[in-house]
Design a protein that fits this description.
352 residues, alpha/beta, Four Helix Bundle (Hemerythrin (Met), subunit A), Rossmann fold, 8-stranded mixed sheet
């Protein structure tokens, strides 16, 4: 269950001027008034927006995916002294986790301050202070994806080949639809037949409409989709673009063209520009964020495949050098393996 979809506000109650006068109610006869104690019925609490067991199950999968990184960092705190050797070992572990030089230096400086203020002498307690420092660094990345301010909300999705872009669009479509949003997909990856077919399968599974054409111009498909979304009263239009390497400048220019053409169909669009990143790419993920942000002005990230050999520390590097919000992170291919990003949960999972 996601919490990013903002429901439309309920209709306001009728004004007193237009409300019909209340019907006259005759007072009951004195003998009809009988004091009856109310039944002892326990109150029923409102259901939580996110099921704790489901969230906890996902956190367990995240911890399992980041276990290799967590165990390598945890070994630093198995000693008996807090000294320079501990900080040097921690620096090496953080760099190996793809945290990056700038973020590592920031975390170590912040950690030294926290240790001094807490006056702790237990190395095991330093691990908790590091989790706090990391959570504070990542908190600016924690931001919900809001749907409902525009109709339709146009979301343009980019990413390199193999990052899980089209699969992430399918998962996002499923969750949007489950929250009551009507979704229209735009298969703007017209050069790769498999991408169109894959997106068509997701459209069929989620019972949503799709705009596609074989071998057509990606910008034209995007324009048609936004126009159709407005005409059909859709809540969301999701535009799947072709995979691009940031070094392919002529192909990156095509992404800029798609964005310009979408703006012709809707002057306020695209309302969100998301980049899907493979969590296994390490520091290259930061390079991708910088390149795509320079070209498209990103509004959010989706980090996928944070399992297996994923190191995860690159989110700290992103927070330090290019703090684009992280809307979702994923740890597998299943639908439930994509969830909203929480800075403290991620920090604790990375260091568990």
């Amino acid at each position: 269950m996601f919490s990013f979809f903002r429901k439309k506000p309920p209709a306001p109650p009728p004004s007193p001027e237009t409300s019909p006068p209340p019907a006259a109610v005759s007072s009951p006869a004195p003998e009809a008034i009988v004091a009856i104690p109310p039944p002892d019925v326990p109150s029923i609490p409102e259901p939580a927006p996110v099921s704790p067991p489901a969230r906890q199950g996902w956190l367990d999968r995240l911890k399992a995916g980041l276990r290799k990184t967590g165990s390598s960092i945890a070994t630093v705190f198995t000693g008996t002294r807090i000294d320079e050797a501990l900080y040097e070992e921690l620096e090496a572990a953080l760099l190996m986790a793809d945290t990056g030089v700038k973020a590592t230096e920031h975390l170590l400086t912040d950690l030294r301050r926290r240790v001094k203020e807490a006056k702790t002498t237990d190395p095991a307690a330093v691990k908790g202070l590091l989790a706090d420092a990391m959570a504070d660094l990542l908190t600016p990345l924690q931001k919900p994806l809001v749907i409902g301010e525009h109709q339709p909300t146009v979301i343009m999705v980019a990413g390199v080949n193999g990052a899980g872009k089209t699969t992430s669009i399918g998962k996002l479509t499923r969750h949007l639809a489950s929250e009551g949003a009507s979704v229209l997909l735009a298969a703007a990856d017209t050069f790769r037949a498999a991408a169109r077919e894959q997106l068509a399968v997701w459209a069929d599974r989620n019972t949503v409409e799709i705009i596609t054409q074989q071998g057509g111009d990606p910008a034209a498909v995007s324009f048609d989709a936004v126009t159709a979304g407005k005409a059909r009263g859709k809540d969301v239009v999701l535009v799947d673009t072709a995979g691009r390497l940031p070094t392919q400048l002529h192909l990156m220019e095509e992404l800029r063209k798609i964005k310009r053409v979408v703006q012709k169909a809707d002057g306020t669009a695209p309302h969100e520009v998301l980049l899907v990143i493979d969590g296994n790419t390490g520091q290259n993920a930061l390079t991708q964020v910088k390149a795509f942000d320079d070209a498209l002005q990103l509004t959010g990230l989706v980090i996928t495949k944070l399992d297996g050999t994923a190191k995860g520390g690159v989110l700290c590097a992103i927070a330090m050098e290019r703090p684009v919000p992280v809307y979702f992170i994923g740890v597998g291919e299943k639908l439930e393996d994509l969830e909203t990003f929480n800075a403290r949960e991620f920090s604790q999972a990375l260091l568990s």
